[in-house]
Structures are given as C-alpha cells and as structure tokens.
Amino acid sequence: MVRAIEWRDTPRPMIRLIDQTLLPLEERYLEVTRVDDLVAAIASLAVRGAPALGAAGALGVVLAMHQGAEEGWSDLKLQAEIERIRVARPTAVNLAWGVDRVRGAVGAGVAAVLGLARGLVAEDEAANRHLSRLGADWILARTGREQVRVVTHCNTGALATTAWGTAYGIIHELHDRGNLGLVYADETRPLLQGARLTSWELHKDGIPHVVEADGAAASTILRGLVDVAIIGADRITANGDTANKVGSVALALACARAGIPFVVAAPSSTVDMTTKTGDHIVIEERDGDEVVTLGGRRLAPEGVRGFNPAFDVTPHDLIAAIVTEKGIVEPATAPDPELLAAVAG
Ligand code: MRU
Fold first, then answer.
1. Does ligand 1 come within 6 angstroms of the Cβ of 267?
2. I need a labelling partner for 19 at 20 to 30 A (CA). Which of 27, 38, 194, 272 fits?
3. Run of H or E residues at 21
C-alpha cells in the first residue's frame, strides 16, 4: 500500500509525500523540509484528501520547529509559520485539527510533538480500517445484496489518508469479503482525482472498476446500475451536513430519487461539532483556469473565466448513513441538530 505522507528523520528531518499532481504517469516523491514547500504542496494538491491533510498539519508543526531551530526563529515567527500551514486550505477541517492536536506541545520540544503527530497518523489508519468494517456490514445489511455495485466520487483511498482509506476502505473491505460487484469511479473534474488517483489505486488493488464522466453518474444511479454511493468527507457539521468534492451532492440527489443509500465515510476527525450546519462551511474556490484548461491546454475561448468551487455540501436529509470508526449515524431518518455528537473526534 502506498504511503501518501510520512515523517522521515534521515538523511535529514522531512515530510515525504508522493506528488499526487503527477500520478498516475509518474510516481515521484517530494522531500519537504521547509514550511514554504509544505504550504505549496498543500495548495497544489501534491498532498490532498482530508485525513492526509490532518497528518500534514500535525507533521507540519514538527517541520516548522526543525526549520525554526535551524534559522533561529522567534516564538512569534514559529507560531506565524504554523498558522500558515493551518490555513493553507479552508474546507477540510482535518488540516486545522491536525495542527491543533499537537500545537499545544511545542513548549515540550520537537520529540514530544513528533510523538503526538506519529500517534495521530497511527490512529488515522486504525480508524479507517475499523470504519471500513462497520460500513461494509451496514451496506450489506441495507442493500441485502451478495454483490454490491458502488459509485464513488473523488479519491478517498490510501492517497487521501495516512493508509487504507475511508469510502475507498469500505470498497476494499467489500472486495476482500467477496461482496463487491463493480465500482463506478467518477472522473472528478476538474483535477481528475477519480480518473487519475482512485483508478490507480483500484487497479493496483485488483478491484474491478470503470471510470465514468461525472455527468454520467446520475444516470448510472437512475438506471439501476449501482446499489449504493459511497463518498468521503472534508467536513461534517453537527447536524450531519457534509462537505465533499464538488459533484457529490448530485450523486446524493440521484440516490434519493432512485431510493438507494448515499453513504458518507470519514474518521471522527472530520466531524466538526463547532460548525452547526453546512451553510457555515467555507467552500474553497480554486483558480478558474483549472476548469477552462486541461493538461495545460485551453478549452474555453481566451478571456472566458472559469468558476471553480472545489467542494459542495450535501444536506443531511439526503445522507442515509455517516460511518465513522466510533459508529454510524443515519441523518436522513434521525434529524437532530447535534446528531454527530456521539461519533465526533
Ligand atoms: O481537493 P481534494 O482532492 O483534497 O478533495 C478531496 C475530497 O473531496 C475527498 O473526498 C475527501 O477529502 C475525503 S478523503 C478520505
């Protein structure tokens, strides 16, 4: 299994990342030793996916402490650099969560912070593996099918996490149990996380799948070609509203019409009880050129601007189940302003 992000002490202290902007054509690793480079890697999506961003936040504090010691930063400068990491992308709550989980230990020294960050990484993998088992049980019981056909959006596998994956983890678990029919992986415009990354992982794991255009997904669902949609999450608010890669809400609407479950899978670190509803989630808007160009070539006429919200919000009443490692809640049938309290991190 690929490790999207990990800490290395040798030959010098660094965060080692697989550069996800180059996959699947090239498997190149970045050795990040400076805060500037980590912030750039987060902004360019070289490292991406909510749980992986949580690890980037926590390990980023360690990185900043090393750079600060080398360059003689004041405490104020160190805190400002840590803050730059914390806000490098706004929507996935895990990034700020990862920073906040370890930041309080800065006074105790770099070894203490690294210990906490490594603990967070280990917890993420354990959470993903556990929620995958819970999610697979729930889906098999709900659909009553021996061979479950799945549609998924964006990338939620090992690349998007510290290991194993969330929605992808459930798919993997179904496959390992012999209960997976076929996966429809949405290509996920404009940066193609589905076509490039999910397909790369599914292919490596030997999981049967096809890649479909995002525009095909609703019809795939309405034609009865899938039994369940399983997606990840960047932020789940107290009432169950969920931000995920743009295009997710279209799947949820189609699932509601078709009467099949729309399932969100995420570690409890993605649950944000301080944000009451999806209306309050900050949706990252990325450079419009990502939409009006493809592989560096312009698609739309010169001068036309792209509109590029990177995420959307699925209202809780469209979500059959939110699966975390702490348990499952069912927002569509159990509306509650504090629904997620029992499974929050
Ligand atoms: O912009 P990205 O690629 O970081 O968006 C990622 C997603 O939307 C994922 O579905 C989400 O972070 C969950 S990853 C387990």
1. no
2. 272
3. none
- The answer to whether residues 195 and 222 touch, using CB atoms and an 8 Å cutoff, is no
160 lines ligand 1 (CB under 6 A): yes
Q: What is the dihedral of CA 247, 249, 255, 261, to 10 degrees?
A: 110
- Name residues whose C-beta falls within 8 Å of residue 16's C-beta, 6 or more positions apart in sequence: 3, 5, 6, 7, 8, 29, 30, 31, 32
Between CA 66 and CA 295 the distance in angstroms is 36
The structure's pTM equals 0.98
Question: Does a cis peptide bond (omega within 30 degrees of 0) precede residue 190?
Answer: yes
Query: Distance from CA of residue 170 to its chain's centroid?
Result: 14
* Cα 74 to averaged position of ligand 1 atoms, centre (Å): 34
ipTM of the complex: 0.99
pLDDT (tens digit, 9 = 90+) per residue, 120-174?
999 999 999 999 999 999 999 999 999 999 999 999 999 999 999 999 999 999 9
| Domains of the chain and CATH, by start | 5-123 (1.20.120.420), 133-342 (3.40.50.10470)
Say if ligand 1 is within 6 A of residue 50 CB.
Answer: yes
Residue nearest to ligand 1 atom 6, measured at CA: 49
- Return d(Cα 94, Cα 100) in angstroms, integer: 10
Active-site positions read 234
- What one-letter code names the amino acid at 230? I
Q: How far apart are CA 261 and CA 205, in angstroms?
A: 25
The number of the ligand 1 atom at minimal distance from the alpha carbon of 284 is 1
Q: Is 80 helix (H, G, I), strand (E, B) or coil?
A: helix
Q: Which two tokens stand for residue 42?
A: 């987060």
Tokens of 219: 């019809």
Please return the burial class of 34, using the count of CB atoms within 10 Å of its CB with bins 0-12, 13-18 and 19+.
Answer: middle
* Exposure b/e, 98-128, CB count within 10 A at least 16 = b: bbebbbebbeeebeebbebbbebbebbbebb
Closest atom of ligand 1 relative to the 165 alpha carbon: 15
